[in-house]
Each structure stands twice: as structure tokens, then as C-alpha cells.
Design brief:
81% helix; 493 residues; 2 domains; 20 helices; mainly alpha
């Protein structure tokens, strides 16, 4: 747990710096300086490139996390594993880019009426696919070398700083919108270039694959993991991006822009989970290799508590300040009010399942995560098809909530049935009780005239009540330990 705790702390710090930068850009500047169509365009560029890059990578990142321990050898340059993954991914990119460009005419015809702004930027997706793919490979490679933080720095801090810079240049009329999109695209590809430089600087850019090292048994296992990795990773990214693509399809770029801004607030609670997942997945893979189930269950149980505490605090802060959020982003986005609520609830079900997907994908039953994700994907597509035409933007968010709840319940049942991993106890009930009391502490307070003061007051009350109860009831030993350290530093000062 030492590596996880150390990197989780630094990773979470950098992630929340990124959240702050993202809030300045997405929460403050986008609603004030861009039309909803323009916001929708920027989100579509990210969604399409992320979705297609996950297919193009051909499952090699899943193979890396699960099977890199077989290649790990500093003296033999890890048998050129990085070069092998790049060769495979390059082939996948070429096929994906050709297929994508082949649909140009169909996309143009469909976009003319509701999404015309996307047409001039259709080909921007191609380089974005390549560099998104490249970043994923480099970031995963660093993770298995026990350095998960560097990718977080470049993705969450450097990239978002460059995005903010591109937006500010447009805000102060130094550039026009077209130039801003170009700079925005450059910002999106920058983390891959920075990681490439860092790999060369650290002298671990080993590009010559040792194909002779891969025996028939290992090759067969790599193919199997890669196949199911494609299904798992593609399904995972699809469910994160399909809603905005389907909103654009049914309702147009304007609605996609509203959904993008409100969706952002609902996803804030996932930040600590992403950080812990990146770090713990490598530790879990090594533990499975030793069949150390005690360590795995301990990480699982502690993750549901520590992530649950942070996730619930963020959920309370967001939902307790809904009126203030719309004072900040503007009334044009008011139709997305319940998008925030349902997306936050959907992500809360993820939070309370901790690092469960990393346990399954690194076990001998890794195929089951692919099966569960396929079911999740089918469910979210069907529910979006049913709910968006009937309920509009809220329908997409409701589809996400229902689908995620069923998916996470399925993971929970699978881990109990297969490994007897049941992480929940009375401390989780205390967490829920603390959350209810913290929510009630501000529910009956009438809105203050100045919304900024209202936001600060409500946030402080929620935080003080919630943290005090969590600490007093010792819900999470890890969190109590961190609070004790802070208290000792304060007392010394």
C-alpha cells in the first residue's frame, strides 16, 4: 500500500490542479465566450478521437498492465516491449484512420442540418487519434514502471494549461475561433510529445522488440488478453463518450454543448478514482501473479471507503450548490440541471465500487470484465435511444445512471461469487449517515443574496460537518491518519 498511498497523494494533488484549470476553462470561460455549438464542437473532437484511439490501440494497454511482469528486465531493456506495442498500435491506427476517413461523405450529409460547424474540422480527428493512442501507450508504460504520476502531470496540468492559454488568446481577441481550435488541438496532442521526450531523457525509450523472447504460450496469452482488452477498453471509452455523440445526433451541437458543460460538473467526483486506479492496477497485477488475495482484498476494501469519503464530499458539494453553479455558467445551461445530478449519481456508483474493475481485468477471469462491459455498452446505447427522444438532455444522463448502476451491481456480485470479496461493512453505513446529516445541514438554509458568498458558506458548512463526522466515527483509517498529520502540523505552527 506504500506505493499506492504515496503516488495517490501526489497524483490526486496534480489531478485537482487539473480540475481547477478545467473549471476555469470549461466552467467559467466556455459558457461566457463560446456558443453552445462551439462548445459542442470541441467536445466532439475529443469524444471521436478518444473513442477511435481505443480501437486503434488493439488492446495493447491491457496487455501491458497484465503481462508486462513477464517482460520486466532492466538489463535486457524489458525485451523491447515498448517497441512491440508501438508497432502493433501503428498498424491499428492506419486501419482506423482509413475507415474513419471513408465515412467523410456520410458525416458531412448528416451534419449539414444540426452540426454544420463540425464539417470543416472533420479531419482534425485523425492526428488526435494518433496522439491520443500514443499517450495511452507511453502513460501505461510508465505506470508499469511504477511512475503513474508523470502521465497525470502532463495530461491534467500541462495539457489543461495549454488549453486555457488557447482559450485566453481567443478571449482577448488575439486569435480568431479557427486559430483557437488549432491551438486547442495542439494542446490535446502535447502530452504524448512530452512523454516521448521524457522517455528519451530517462533513457528507457527501448524501441527494438525482442521477438525471440515471446514463446508460443506467452504469444497465445497476449493475443487472448489483447482481444478481450479491445472489447473492455473500447466499451469503457464508448460509454464515456457515446452520450454526447448521441445527443449531437438527436438534438444537435447546441444541445451537445449544454450537455458538455453540465456533464463536466457531474464528473468531478471521479478524479480521485482515476488516480488511484492508475496506480493500484499495477500493484494488483503483481499481486495476482503471486496469488496474494489478501493484499488485493485489502486494497479493494480500503478503496471503497477512502474513495467513498472523497466522492461523497464532492457529490454533496456539487448537488448542494446547484443554484450557484448555474449562476456561474449562465441560465442558457439551465436545461442541464438534472444532467449534473444524474451524472454525479452515476459516477457515485463507480466510486463506491472502488478499484473493482482493476481486480477483474488483472485476474484469470479477465474475460468477464469484457463481457460485463459489453452488456453495459448495449444497455447504455439502448437506454439512450429510448430516453433522449423522450426526455432530451436529461434522458442521456438518466440512461448513464441506470446503466452504470446495473453494471456496478454486476461487478459487485461477480467478485462475491468468484472470490468471496465483499468489501462493505458498518463503516459504509456510517459514511452514508454522515452524508445525510451534512446534506441536511444546508438544506434548510435560504439562499443568500450574493451567490459567491452563498457557495462559500454552503461548502464550508458541508465540509466541516461531513469531515468532523467521518473523523469522529473513524470511517476510514487512512483518512484519519492524514487528518492527524495535518492537525499535528497545525499544532506545531
Amino acid at each position: 500500500m506504500g506505493i499506492i498511498q504515496k503516488q495517490s497523494i501526489s497524483g490526486t494533488i496534480y489531478s485537482y490542479i487539473g480540475v481547477g484549470l478545467g473549471f476555469l476553462t470549461t466552467g467559467l470561460l466556455f459558457p461566457r465566450m463560446l456558443s453552445t455549438d462551439e462548445v459542442g464542437l470541441l467536445r466532439l473532437l475529443v469524444s471521436y478521437s478518444t473513442l477511435l484511439a481505443q480501437f486503434a490501440v488493439l488492446g495493447v494497454n491491457t496487455v501491458t498492465v497484465r503481462l508486462f511482469p513477464h517482460f520486466r528486465d532492466d538489463e535486457k531493456k524489458h525485451h523491447g516491449y515498448l517497441g512491440l506495442t508501438l508497432m502493433i498500435a501503428l498498424a491499428g491506427f492506419i486501419v482506423t484512420a482509413i475507415v474513419y476517413m471513408g465515412f467523410h461523405q456520410q458525416v458531412v450529409e448528416h451534419s449539414k442540418e444540426k452540426s454544420a460547424l463540425f464539417i470543416p474540422y472533420f479531419y482534425y480527428v485523425v492526428p488526435l487519434i494518433f496522439f491520443t493512442l500514443l499517450f495511452g501507450i507511453f502513460d501505461t508504460y510508465y505506470r508499469v514502471l511504477y511512475n503513474a504520476v508523470i502521465g497525470i502531470i502532463y495530461k491534467e496540468v500541462v495539457q489543461r494549461s495549454l488549453i486555457l492559454l488557447s482559450v485566453l488568446l481567443y478571449f482577448f481577441k488575439v486569435t480568431d475561433f479557427h486559430t483557437m481550435v488549432i491551438l486547442y488541438t495542439v494542446a490535446l496532442i502535447s502530452p504524448a510529445l512530452f512523454l516521448l521526450y521524457h522517455l528519451a531523457k530517462d533513457k528507457i525509450l527501448f524501441l527494438k522488440p525482442d521477438l525471440g523472447f515471446i514463446g508460443k504460450k506467452l504469444a497465445k496469452e497476449m493475443l487472448s488478453v489483447a482481444f478481450f482488452g479491445i472489447i473492455a477498453s473500447y466499451s469503457g471509452v464508448l460509454v464515456m463518450n457515446i452520450d454526447v455523440i448521441m445527443v449531437n445526433h438527436f438534438l444537435g451541437l447546441k444541445a451537445a454543448g449544454i450537455y458538455t458543460i453540465t456533464f463536466f460538473f457531474g464528473t468531478l467526483i471521479l478524479v480521485p478514482m482515476r488516480t488511484m486506479g492508475k496506480i493500484s492496477s499495477v500493484i494488483i497485477a503483481d499481486a495476482w501473479k503471486k496469488d496474494d488475495r489478501k493484499t488485493i482484498f485489502d486494497i479493494y476494501r480500503k478503496s471503497t471507503l477512502s474513495l467513498g469519503v472523497v466522492g461523497m464530499l464532492l457529490f454533496l458539494g456539487i448537488t448542494g450548490n446547484l443554484d450557484n453553479i448555474f449562476h456561474i455558467i449562465g441560465k442558457d445551461y439551465e436545461t442541464g440541471r438534472y444532467v449534473i445530478v444524474f451524472i454525479a449519481l452515476a459516477n457515485l456508483t463507480d466510486i463506491f465500487q472502488g478499484i473493482s474493475p482493476h481486480i477483474i481485468v488483472n485476474s484469470k477471469h479477465y474475460r468477464w470484465l469484457s463481457y460485463l462491459l459489453l452488456g453495459f455498452t448495449a444497455l447504455i446505447v439502448v437506454t439512450n435511444l429510448l430516453f433522449i427522444p423522450q426526455y432530451g438532455l436529461v434522458g442521456a444522463a438518466l440512461a448513464s445512471f441506470l446503466s452504470k448502476f446495473i453494471y456496478n451491481l454486476s461487478k459487485f456480485i461477480f467478485l462475491i461469487k468468484t472470490y468471496d470479496f465483499q468489501p462493505y461493512n458498518k463503516k459504509h453505513l456510517l459514511l452514508i449517515a454522515a452524508s445525510i446529516l451534512a446534506w441536511l445541514s444546508v438544506y434548510f438554509i435560504p439562499p443568500l443574496q450574493e451567490y459567491i458568498i452563498d457557495l462559500i458558506v454552503r461548502s464550508i458548512i458541508i465540509t466541516v460537518v461531513f469531515v468532523a463526522l467521518i473523523y469522529w466515527w473513524r470511517v476510514s483509517d487512512d483518512i484519519n491518519e492524514k487528518i492527524d498529520k495535518v492537525l499535528r502540523l497545525v499544532i506545531k505552527v
